[in-house]
Design brief:
The chain is an alpha+beta fold. 22% of the residues lie in helices and 27% in strands. The strands form 8 sheets. It has an 8-stranded mixed beta sheet with strand order 5-6-8-7-9-12-10-11, sandwiched between helices. Strands 21, 24, 27, 28, 32 and 33 form a 6-stranded antiparallel beta sheet that branches. Strands 2-3-1-4 form a 4-stranded antiparallel beta sheet.
Length: 613
């Protein structure tokens, strides 16, 4: 903590009184401003980025002003927060013709979707995801842009977000500019048309709707959301994500702090919505716009990323250059940030600090949006190192698989995955030779050597084979001779292969007639007959295979029944009037005669499998 004895040469002049109701922009003079700024950041203060020459500037809540006074830090109040609507003095810049307020942002999104209904739609994320509303009862809205916007196509999904910090109202302008360019240039500009055709682009212009409205109505310096903390309000949404949330580099633990990280990781409804959307859509790329600074942030604040240098540093440099910022880049200020969480999830994710002001003139905000547009296009066009699909080798169904780069020392749970309707995955990796391991529960893993370059676009479709392509269920009956018949199988079930898949019933009463019967409608559990211990386990309709003799030694339980299912399919290409096809599911059970039994027959347990190609 700072104290009255702490000597960084702090200037001791308060030049203006400060508001007790709103945020205040203050200046602290110092002979050692860099060290002072770092110390204040560690103490949880909202220290502004930028060159620190002779002073540090920060934005403080009323509670933080009291804290600074108790620490012996005297401040010069530069300005106090006011409703942003009062700060737009020129009629031609007034809401809504200048900066749009929250209602105008949503209305603008809806108008664009109405004008381009085939390529974009507005999504109420809280409704779509079944998530709770914000503290003030608001929802987050996204605009989705794609050539077949109502269909989940087999293409990478990407996410652009803005206004995590409420006062940074230049960033929704940037997001809305991108929406306007994608929609109005589609069909006439081949480059834009190709990007829209090849991606599902999600854009969330305002991630902090309560805070954004508070900026317009009450306090233009407000940063957080509007959670009621009891004696204060708000959580810094960009310190609330779960990655390294509780680390020493996480946000402040003080509810009155402008960088308060919240009572628990992902506690805020706004954060939970973005995380739920990301887990559902599995974004390949993520871009998060903030202000101010005109620089690209990458990697983590304190945690280590094995690709921080040179790969992520180089990528951030290229993005910065393409965005008009000349290569300016740095590490983030803290952990718990949104793009860091996305990085851990496997996305190609960056944060861009835009402009030199939270609230420049509207014309300047529009100019900044135009400046950044080429960087957004570069980010979208950045080649995907490795992509493809992971599917079940038998059914062709998509699989949610874990994709590991063997030997890369990820230490924070970073990883890649496949999933969704198509089993798609997209990986952007550091150049070099990698061993890529694909695994999913219940399947044998597979590993492939892959060489990645800065421009590689390798396609690798992986079919995983189930560790056991069949499973047993239900309980076998006990025959009058004390025999309990159990099923097993050997091989891979197929709708077309000549290689054997053998069903085997062991422990059958010897020298009895028996057979296998099967169905395609599922499993049941129904008593077989009065006095019988057997259970019928195959739902109707059912069909039986050929009768056979169990063999073995009379009076013993060493009889067996067997059936080469694949051969049976080739000679009986349909079941119950429906042709066998890859992906079809089969439930089967063995039946055999048991004359002393009240029913005269007995049943084995049951076996379930799915046909491969």
């Amino acid at each position: 903590m700072l104290s009255r004895s702490w000597s960084f040469g702090v200037a001791l002049a308060v030049l203006a009184s400060v508001s007790v109701a709103q945020s205040t922009w203050v200046r602290v003079a110092s002979e050692r401003p860099v060290e002072l700024g770092e110390a204040l950041e560690r103490a949880g203060f909202d220290v502004l980025e930028g060159e620190r020459v002779g002073a540090v500037e920060l934005i403080a809540s009323p509670e933080e002003l009291v804290q600074l006074e108790r620490m012996g830090v005297e401040v010069e109040a530069l300005r106090t927060g006011r409703p942003f609507r009062e700060l737009q003095p020129q009629p031609e810049l007034a809401v809504p013709t200048g900066y749009p307020d929250l209602a105008a942002v949503l209305a603008g999104m809806q108008a664009i979707a109405a004008s381009h209904p085939t390529i974009c739609r507005v999504v109420n994320l809280n409704t779509s995801l079944g998530m709770p509303l914000t503290a003030d009862g608001r929802a987050l809205h996204a605009l989705v842009i794609s050539d077949n916007v109502a269909t989940d196509e087999d293409e990478p999904a990407v996410l652009v977000v803005a206004d995590y910090h409420a006062r940074e109202i230049v960033t929704p302008v940037i997001a809305l500019h991108a929406i306007e360019r994608f929609t109005t240039l589609y069909g006439t500009d081949p480059r834009i048309t190709g990007l829209v055709d090849g991606h599902e682009i999600w854009i969330v212009p305002v991630c902090n709707p309560d805070g954004y409205e508070h900026v317009f109505s009450v306090d233009n310096l407000w940063r957080k959301n509007r959670r009621n903390n009891g004696s204060s309000y708000g959580v810094d949404l960009n310190r609330n994500h779960s990655f390294a949330w509780s680390s020493p580099c996480g946000g402040s633990t003080s509810p009155s702090s402008s960088t308060y990280r919240g009572p628990s990781a992902s506690s805020e409804p706004e954060v939970r919505v973005i995380e739920a959307l990301s887990l559902r859509e599995r974004f390949a790329k993520v871009l998060d716009y903030h202000s101010t600074g005109r620089e690209v942030l990458y990697a983590y604040a304190c945690a280590a990323h094995p690709w921080e240098t040179p790969f992520l540093d180089s990528e951030a440099n290229l993005l910065s250059v393409a965005s008009g910022y000349g290569g300016a880049r740095r590490a983030p200020s803290a952990e718990g940030e949104h793009y860091e969480w996305q990085t851990v999830l496997g996305a190609y994710a960056f944060l861009i600090e835009t402009h030199t002001s939270f609230q420049p003139t509207y014309a300047s905000a529009q100019a900044e949006a135009a400046l950044l547009w080429p960087g957004l296009l570069w980010w979208l066009e950045r080649p995907t190192s490795l992509r493809g699909h992971v599917t079940d080798a038998c059914s062709g169904a998509s699989l949610a698989a874990t994709i590991e780069l063997v030997g890369v020392p990820f230490a924070n749970g970073e990883g890649f995955s496949s999933g969704g309707e198509h089993g798609r995955y997209d990986v952007i990796a550091a150049p070099g030779s990698h061993s890529v391991r694909f695994s999913a529960p219940g399947y044998a893993p597979q590993t492939f050597p892959v060489t990645v370059s800065a421009t590689s676009t390798l396609v690798l479709d992986v079919q995983l084979v189930a560790s056991a392509p069949w499973s047993t269920y239900c309980t076998a009956g006990t025959s009058s001779s004390g025999c309990t018949a159990t099923l097993s199988a050997l091989g891979t079930p197929s709708a077309s292969s000549a290689n054997p898949f053998t069903l085997l019933a062991s422990g059958v009463d010897a020298q009895r007639s028996g057979l296998f019967f099967y169905g395609t409608s599922g499993a049941v559990s129904t008593p077989w007959a009065i006095g019988s211990t057997s259970t019928l386990c195959v739902a109707p309709p059912r069909q039986r295979a050929l009768v056979q003799d169990s063999g073995g030694t009379a009076g013993s339980c060493n009889g067996t029944l067997s059936l080469d299912w694949n051969a049976y399919v080739l000679s009986h290409p349909s079941a119950l009037g429906v042709p066998f096809s890859p992906g079809a599911e089969i439930w089967t059970q063995a039946w055999f005669r048991d004359p002393p039994s009240p029913s005269g027959t007995s049943l084995s347990d049951a076996l379930h499998f799915r046909l491969c190609q």
